[in-house]
Specification:
single chain; Lipocalin; 19 strands
Length: 277
């Protein structure tokens, strides 16, 4: 089966989407982000960024980063991640200490609150303006041609265990990823490297799991046998969610979000870390 589109159907009308062409837009940055002519600080020796994952820590001259923080991942000549509003992907050239995004890439089209949307636009502009990078004190800095930092990142934790994850969407088996029903809570927790537990909306469940580096294999879940009538459709949702969970073959964390995908790349389950918006 071919991969399904990463589209989440919501119970509220869709708001206006971000323009795809705005992704990684190469618009002018504010004055504080323009190259300066002061003496350049000596950059640390170049180190490989391949396979690394980062969380935005700050953009000089901007307010504190709004959650969820934008993310940056570098793999196989591409950058990808979340701008805090939508997912993005684009080709990138990294050679020595140079860093250059070649062209805009694909993006999802979710609508976001105005402040979050503005932060996403600024983040994409920063990525497009970067020409160099350096690693210093465990942080990644993206720099202009003149050597001025335009963004700072910290390493992104990649660990499922130790957190409770709240399900935000799941593949219903009918060509779509849908949001959970209002009034229901679905969760997932990795108790150990070999066992998943949580609630499926009505019943508790448990499943054996084999977890690898970015991969997982979930055995058929076993659930309690309660019957719930509210919210309407909760039992059907439970069956669909447990089926989606069992279909997962890949996992990835972006900021406070966890994605489980099928082996073909289609979304199976989307989750957020408990206690985060």
């Amino acid at each position: 089966m071919s991969a399904q589109p990463d589209v989440i159907q919501r119970n509220t009308p869709a708001a206006a989407s971000l323009a795809l062409g705005a992704l990684l837009g190469f618009s002018s940055l504010p004055a504080h982000a323009q190259p300066d002519h002061s003496p350049r600080s000596k950059a640390a020796p170049a180190a490989t960024l391949e396979g690394s994952a980062w969380l935005l820590e700050s953009i000089p001259g901007q307010r504190a980063v709004l959650p969820p923080a934008p993310t940056l991942r570098l793999e196989a000549g591409r950058i990808s991640g979340s701008d805090g509003c939508n997912r993005y992907s684009a080709p990138v050239q990294v050679k020595g200490s140079s860093f250059r995004v070649n062209q805009p890439g694909p993006s999802t089209l979710m609508a976001c609150p105005p402040r979050q949307r503005r932060q996403a636009e600024t983040f994409r502009a920063v990525l497009g303006s970067a020409r160099r990078y350096r690693l210093r004190n465990g942080r990644l800095e993206l720099l202009t041609t003149g050597g001025r930092p335009v963004a700072r990142f910290r390493p992104q934790p990649q660990e499922i265990a130790g957190s409770v994850w709240i399900v935000t969407g799941f593949n219903n088996g009918r060509q779509a990823v849908v949001s959970t029903l209002a009034g229901s809570t679905l969760s997932l927790e990795l108790k150990s490297r070999g066992r998943l537990t949580g609630t499926a909306g009505c019943n508790r469940y448990a499943a054996a799991v084999q977890l690898g580096e970015g991969t997982l294999k979930v055995k058929p879940p076993v659930a309690t046998r309660r019957i719930c009538s509210q919210p309407r459709g909760v039992m059907e949702q439970e069956v669909q969610f447990l089926s989606a969970l069992e279909s997962a073959g890949q996992w990835r964390i972006e900021a406070e979000r966890l994605e489980l995908r099928r082996p073909d790349g289609a979304l199976a389950v989307t989750l957020r870390r408990a206690g985060t918006p």
